[in-house]
Design goal:
The protein has two domains: 311 residues, SGNH hydrolase (Rossmann fold, 3-Layer(aba) Sandwich); 127 residues, no CATH class. The chain has a five-stranded parallel β-sheet with strand order 6-1-7-8-13, with helices on both faces. It has a two-stranded antiparallel sheet with strand order 2-3. A two-stranded antiparallel sheet has the order 4-5. It is elongated. It contains 15 helices and 15 strands. The chain starts with 41 loop residues before the first strand and ends in a 21-residue tail after the last helix. With 508 residues, the protein is of the alpha/beta class.
């Protein structure tokens, strides 16, 4: 019998070695100038990356190290004005609505894995809006078209999903839009890094359809409207494109084959598992789909069992073959329904980071469903182990077909962004190339080697998506490099090595 299989994802802490190489960002000590740009009124539009979101939450220290704040500090040296950020109330992270927690708190690393900050008591209440205007208009969770949406900051729409709780805190009125609040300040310069969530939301939900990719035409209309609006008063600006989600650690941590025979909770179960799946595998072979067979190795790590909706559903045929092989109709029907579109994972499948907490645990919902159908609890428990006997569901895995959908959309969106930037004469940052470089060898600066490796790489926080303070400084440098090249300014880069790669649990 299969009993209470437990599995813990262990993250190796092999720290990257430091390097004495420089990234080449040092520039000749020229007099600081704005060039043809006017930084006196700078506004930053975007999503969580712009807001300073990090480690799964928005909190003061992350906001202080957000790349727009770092840009604004350099702009101030060449005529830039005040840059106001809608700071949260604390460094716990998290939001309250009517005293109820609706987001957060931030994550910390406990030596083994990221966990929510113990004892955190968030105090940021969104029902009490701040007094603006604010220059950092980054809104965590925002997609391209959300920046144009009226009522996006109406607290009444938060629970129905028509409004954004982060924007509720600092919008000028319940009926306004993000871009309207930007234009009300008569900006002379802007940054726009938007579009990530137009594909990322689909990716982080495993492509299960609950958060679809924005249609290309809708993205094009929204993005071009944003650029046209922001430049309508003569403002100059800088825009960045969308990174490939496959380069970020959120999709790289969980391996496709985490089931280790050396694990005392799993290894002894392997003979029972293989014997249990033997009749099912014979049915697969009879139906000429032997590649769907499920076999666990006694000598090497085994792949997870996953649901793959891109496969033909052979449940009806499978039920018939299993019955012909001697199984009763109820059991044959259950197995056919459960494995009619399943297979073991391959290296081409990507798993979302939260999958680490459910693999090899009991799927309580499916267990309860089986018991309600009259299946004995012992049998129901054996059939309901996530990724082992119960195929890991769509929301936990990005199939190759879903990855291709994301790539096609990302490439199309990035072409729209580049064309809009070129037509408007804006500075352009190839964020896609930057993050790809981090994922493929990393970058060197200040005697430090920064990569996209989870936890130890230095570029990404504990949610595997958002940037560390050090990576924000590096990104700010890339923005300034593009601004200098386009507008003839002589902004000087930061030394990213002076910025931290993590925030302590006792951050005040």
């Amino acid at each position: 019998m299969i009993k209470n299989i437990k599995w813990l994802l262990l993250v190796s802490l092999t720290f990257a070695a430091c390097s004495s190489d420089d990234d080449g960002s040092s520039v000749e000590e020229l007099p600081l100038t704005a060039g043809s740009a006017d930084f006196s009124k700078y506004v930053a539009l975007g999503n969580s990356l712009t807001a300073g979101f990090s480690d799964g939450a928005l909190f003061i220290a992350g906001q202080e190290n957000a790349y727009p704040k770092l840009l604004a500090d350099q702009f101030a040296l060449v005529g830039g004005g005040e840059f106001k950020t809608p700071f949260t109330n604390d460094n716990f992270g998290g939001l309250l609505l009517g005293g109820n927690l609706i987001a957060g708190p931030r994550l910390i690393f406990n030596g083994t894995s990221p966990i929510p900050l113990p004892g955190a008591m968030p105090s940021t209440e969104i029902a009490v809006p701040l007094t603006g205007p604010f220059n950092n208009l980054g809104v965590p969770g925002a997609k391209s078209f959300h920046l144009l949406a009226p009522n996006y900051g109406d607290v009444a729409g938060v629970m129905t999903g028509t409004a954004n709780p982060y924007f509720v805190r600092f919008r000028s009125s319940a009926s306004t839009s993000v871009v309207a609040d930007a234009m009300a300040q008569n900006p002379t310069f802007f940054s726009l890094w938007i579009g990530n969530n137009d594909v990322l939301g689909y990716a982080t939900t495993g492509g299960d359809g609950t958060n679809p990719i924005t249609p290309e035409g809708m993205f094009s209309t929204a993005y071009n409207t944003l650029v046209t609006t922001l430049t309508s008063g003569g403002a100059k600006g800088v825009v960045a494109n969308i990174p490939d989600v496959s380069t970020i650690p959120h999709f790289k941590v969980v391996p496709f084959n985490p089931l280790n025979p050396a694990n005392p909770a799993f290894g002894p179960q392997i003979p029972v598992l293989n014997a249990t799946f033997a009749q099912l595998n014979q049915a697969f072979a009879f139906l000429q789909v032997p590649e769907r067979s499920i076999v666990f190795s006694t000598t090497a790590a085994s792949p997870l069992v996953i649901h793959d909706e891109s496969l033909p559903n052979i449940a009806p045929q499978l039920a018939q073959v299993l019955q012909a092989g001697g199984l009763d109709p109820l059991t044959a029907g259950l197995l056919a329904s459960q494995f009619g579109q399943s297979r073991q994972a391959t290296k081409d499948d990507l798993f979302v980071l939260p999958a680490s907490s459910v693999i090899a645990t009991l799927n309580q919902q499916y267990f309860s469903q089986l018991v309600s159908m009259g299946v004995p609890q012992a049998t129901a428990g054996q059939l309901a182990v996530n990724g082992v006997t119960y195929p890991l569901q769509d929301k936990w895995v990005l199939l190759p077909s879903e990855q291709q959908e994301i790539k096609v959309a990302t490439d199309a969106f990035n072409q729209i962004i580049k064309t809009a930037a070129d037509q408007a004469g804006l500075a352009f940052v190839d964020a896609n190339a930057i993050l790809r470089q981090l994922a493929n060898g990393g970058v060197r600066f200040d005697n430090y080697h920064m990569t996209a490796a989870f936890v130890q790489g230095g570029a990404f926080g504990l949610d595997g998506i958002h940037l560390t303070a050090r990576a924000n400084a590096y990104v700010a440098n890339e923005f300034m490099k593009a601004i200098n090249a386009t507008y003839g300014s002589t902004l000087r880069p930061y030394k990213p090595g002076n910025f931290p790669i993590s925030y302590p649990a006792n951050l005040q």
